[in-house]
């Protein structure tokens, strides 16, 4: 891997809690800060293209994600994404060939103590470097095939379909 391309789309991983509004809003991408603090031994670039909760992503947004990746020379791509529609986006990217693309996110904001963000990012970084070309999801300590996984909203985790 010469350089890891990171595309950020928003989601819980980047959410910030505003006390005065008593709600969450998607803030600035956290992954660059996380990787720098961890002292990773590879080059990466971050392209922030969206700041949306994944429930609000549209087909046009997915096309923007696809076009952004297709326009870059990088063969290793990590996407931070909200968990609710991550599978849909992964499936929409299946037509991109010759690249290893891994989507990850968090069930709790990266800024929160006990967040799964760093663990999921670490899993995704390992996956994007070692898997053959294709599209994958890295969540809950596992690498998933987007065609065979779903988010179990009640249990708040990803699980195999069937």
TrEMBL record:
GO MF assignments: asparaginase activity
SUPFAM superfamilies: Glutaminase/Asparaginase
The L-asparaginase N-terminal domain, residue ranges: 4-152
InterPro entries: Asp/glu_Ase-like_sf (IPR036152), Asparaginase/glutaminase-like (IPR006034), L-asparaginase_N (IPR027474), L-asparaginase_N_sf (IPR037152)
Binding residues annotated for substrate, in chain numbering: 54, 83-84
Active-site residue numbers: 12 (o-isoaspartyl threonine intermediate)
Protein name as it appears in the record: Asparaginase
Origin species: Luteimonas yindakuii
Organism ancestry: Bacteria, Pseudomonadati, Pseudomonadota, Gammaproteobacteria, Lysobacterales
């Amino acid at each position: 891997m010469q350089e890891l391309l990171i595309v950020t789309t928003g989601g819980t991983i980047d959410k910030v809690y505003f006390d005065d509004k008593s709600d969450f809003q998607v803030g600035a991408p956290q992954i660059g800060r996380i990787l720098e603090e961890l002292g990773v031994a590879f080059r990466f670039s971050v392209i922030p293209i969206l700041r949306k909760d994944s429930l609000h992503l549209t087909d046009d947004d997915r096309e923007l994600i696809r076009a952004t990746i297709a326009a870059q020379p990088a063969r290793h791509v990590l996407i931070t994404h909200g968990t609710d529609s991550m599978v849909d986006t992964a499936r929409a990217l299946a037509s991109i060939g010759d690249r290893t693309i891994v989507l990850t996110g968090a069930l709790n904001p990266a800024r929160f103590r006990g967040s799964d963000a760093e663990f999921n990012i670490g899993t995704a970084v390992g996956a994007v470097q070692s898997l053959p070309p294709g599209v994958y999801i890295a969540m809950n300590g596992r690498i998933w095939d987007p065609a065979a996984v779903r988010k179990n909203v009640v249990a708040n985790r990803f699980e195999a379909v069937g």
